[in-house]
Design brief:
By secondary structure, the protein is mainly beta. Helix content is 6%, strand content 47%.
Length: 191
């Protein structure tokens, strides 16, 4: 059987699907689970007194290779980074010293947010110069590009549709991942 996992945005093939039917009791227990080759359990659903509940695999490490989504939190976003880059850039930081040096250029005279670099990484997207302040960028998704140990950072750039203040802008978004990331590529979308 084939199974699509929305959390990982991945289709699993040659799965074994177990479906259980129990018309006797409202609190019937397990309804279904799906096993995928090389992954194991990727989906579980059960019926309880509060209704049906589902669990799906979000990420996995298979033979040292990562798969699935990376959980992240935005720590800074705005219309104008002071960093000297002029073009769209993606940065990945894995140490306080390199992130601190970046932050000093990004927001001179301010202290960089605290990050636990033993478990976390920082991903920065800067759009480069834009003609006015109506532009913005947001990191929408960070996902492992299995079987390669790199992530794909999905970025949405919003373009103004009406009048906006004229000063040049350099929109950015900075996030902290809840696991270590070494290599990344960008997937850019404009709306």
């Amino acid at each position: 059987a084939k199974y699509y996992d929305a959390q990982m945005d991945k289709t699993f093939y040659n799965c074994i699907r177990f479906t259980f039917v129990n018309n006797m009791v409202a609190d019937a227990g397990v309804e279904e689970f799906v096993l995928a080759p090389n992954y194991g359990l990727v989906h579980w659903s059960e019926q309880s007194l509060i209704g049906s509940t589902n669990a799906e695999l979000m990420s996995a490490v298979l033979a040292g290779k990562h798969a699935g989504k990376v959980i992240f939190n935005s720590i800074d976003q705005g219309p104008k980074s002071q960093h000297p880059t002029t073009d769209a850039m993606l940065f990945v930081f894995n140490s306080a010293s390199t992130f601190g040096a970046f932050w000093e250029q990004h927001k001179p005279g301010t202290e960089a947010p605290a990050v636990d670099f033993t478990k976390q990484s920082v991903i920065v997207v800067i759009a480069g110069w834009r003609p006015n302040w109506g532009y913005s960028v947001a990191i929408q998704n960070v996902k492992w590009n299995y079987p390669y140990n790199k992530v794909v950072v999905s970025v949405l750039e919003t373009v103004p549709t009406g009048p906006t203040p004229n000063p040049m802008s350099k929109p950015y978004n900075i996030v902290v991942t809840q696991e270590k990331v070494q290599n990344a590529t960008m997937k850019w979308k404009t709306q």
